[in-house]
Amino acid sequence: MRKATLASIISLTVTIGTGIDMSSDAKADGYATDKSFVPLPVYNWSGVYFGLHGGWGGGQSDIKEFPLQITGVPIPSELSGSNNINGGLGGVQLGLNKQWGPWVLGGEFRLSGARIDGSTNDCAGATTAVAQAVGAGIATFNCQTDVRWIAAGLGRLGYAWNRWLTYGTLGWAVAGVDYTSNITVTPGGGTISVPSGANDTADGLAFGGGLEYAVTDSVTFGVDYTGMNLESKGSGVFVGGIVTSGNREVDLNTVTARLNLKLGGGW
């Protein structure tokens, strides 16, 4: 009889224990969790991407000319001058990223067509030099700088906050730069024009940074700044380069809007 009573008490205890509702007090004490809570996914920047960019560029063109020295003729050993340039550019980019925690490491290649130009009527300071030597108004040296295309290979290091990415860039850029010149001489009331120029491939350091946002899992939009210090050497820009040699520099700053399509989740 006692064994039957003890078995009944144990059975009743188990039944009561398993029937306790822990939906209020127990949850408040941290013993149960709401299984309906799902944490927001963290965006992954790893993958290959390609896209389009377009924007504005501006800066300064510096031209140095080194005339051939002729004995007995007072010719300066160096002529130098500068002028502003500005205009638009647009093109494509291809790159890849790899993310470790919040850090994103990658690389990118860009190719842009450009129409960034500017001109001066005192090319390399030659108009001023002639005026000081033989008189004002006798000769005018005009020249124009045209940046036609830009290619750049850049490394990228960024920091991500979920769908936001800020980054810095460092690499090398190459650009096609056309220099056209025209010397206008007015001896005795007549006018003589002597056109010339040089077509350069300038290169140098490129650096910058930007901010990017993942609109969807595969589409990102951003704004990028890139500064470039480009240099070229060769024949001069006057009279077919037969009377001078040249050293030319372009300091260029570009700001572009970018739209990318990301493929894959890693590499």
Largest sheet: 8 strands, antiparallel, barrel
Q: Give the mean pLDDT.
A: 84
Distance between the termini: 74 Å
Helix content: 10-25%
| Range of strand content | over 45%
What is the number of strand segments? 8
Radius of gyration computed on alpha carbons:
34 Å
Looking at the structure, the CATH topology of the largest domain is Porin
Tell me the overall shape. Answer: elongated
What number of domains? 2
What is the helix tally? 3
CATH class wording of the largest domain: Mainly Beta
CATH architecture of the largest domain: Beta Barrel
Structural class: mainly beta
- State the strand order across the main sheet: 1-2-3-4-5-6-7-8
Low-confidence stretches: 1-28
H and E order: HHEEEHEEEEE
Annotation keywords:
disordered N terminus, Porin, eight-stranded antiparallel β-barrel, mainly beta
Q: Describe it for me?
A:
By secondary structure, the chain is mostly beta strands. The chain folds into two domains: 1-34; 47-263, Porin, CATH 2.40.160. The protein contains three helices and eight strands. The protein has helices at residues 2-18, 25-28, 126-134, and strands at residues 47-67, 79-100, 103-120, 139-161, 164-185, 192-214, 219-235, 244-263. It has an eight-stranded antiparallel β-barrel with strand order 1-2-3-4-5-6-7-8. The longest helix has 17 residues, at 2-18. It is elongated and about 95 Å long. Mean pLDDT is 84; it is low at 1-28.
